[in-house]
Amino acid sequence: MREALKNAVHNAILLECKLPHQESGLDKSCLSSQNDICFSNSNPQEISKIIYNGIVEFAINEYEIDYNALEREQRKAILSRIRYNPEASEDTKLKYGFYGEVLLDLILRVFLNTSVLAARGYFYSPIENSEAKGFDAFHLMEREGNIDLWFGEAKFYVQYKSAITPVMEKLSTSLSDGYVNRNLLAIIDERTHISTHNAQLENLLNSWEENPDINLSEEIKNRGIRLIYPIFIAYQKNITDQYHQSIKKCIDHIASEYMRLNIVIPASFDYRLFFIFLPLSEVKQIKENVIKWIDSREPLI
């Protein structure tokens, strides 16, 4: 990641606390198997800035980017590596998924020190003209001679319930053996674009090449590979809510949806789930800024 973008992320996003948080009395979510993380922002324009500037490195592996022609690389990414139609209506553009996905990618890399397994843009097809299927981030982190696969989810809505409920409704699918298998197969299909090389991962992928009938979910379990599932929730904070009060509403809604949906997670593999919360002001304005800069080809930092 270019240094100017990393600095912009630190300027835009502040780590507020991790849950459980003793001072506020906030517990982590009922689903979380490790600390939830809460961030804040005081200037919506800065969020727009990092989304816009983060597109190219979200969509394309860094080693494949010509940094001497960054504006051109950005344009290529926008037209062929994310879902964005310059001719679409403003309402359609506001509904695209890349805003939250880029933020998740930046947060994982800058604050949690993950490495990108494969840039998300390689899983998008311009022909389909729909959001890329599967997890919203494919990252990894080395862990004491083994690896954690960081397969993330991102939601960015005005209403926090609109961000949380869809995640909860598909959670039993997202953490199922079949879904993880299909995502690993998608990575195998894009093996030439894997940007972080690791012996454990290479062995896993090679084992499938040699025997495509193996169950990849069972393989990651047998090899001691963990799946880390960060769920990023960005939303517009109610103007009358204090910061921690706003986070508590999210935690409470997760609990109520867990009960309503009677969620059962069928994963046979070892996983860790946690939430990342980013309450914001002016969600629509943030996205409108990004749209304006894309369409006017604002110079990158």
Walk me through this protein's architecture.
With 301 residues, the protein is of the alpha/beta class. It has one domain. It has helices at 3-12, 44-59, 70-80, 90-94, 98-111, 160-169, 171-174, 177-189, 199-210, 216-222, 243-261, 283-296, and strands spanning 14-19, 36-40, 115-116, 137-143, 146-156, 226-236, 271-280. Strand 4 and strand 5 (146-156) form a beta hairpin. The radius of gyration is 19 Å and the shape is globular. The model has no long low-confidence stretch (mean pLDDT 95).
How do the helices and strands line up, and which of them pair or pack?
Blueprint (H helix, E strand, L loop, with lengths): L2 H10 L1 E6 L16 E5 L3 H16 L10 H11 L9 H5 L3 H14 L3 E2 L20 E7 L2 E11 L3 H10 L1 H4 L2 H13 L9 H12 L5 H7 L3 E11 L6 H19 L9 E10 L2 H14 L5
Parallel strand pairs: 2-7, 5-6, 6-7
Antiparallel strand pairs: 1-2, 3-4, 4-5
Helix pairs in contact: 1-2, 2-5, 2-12, 6-11
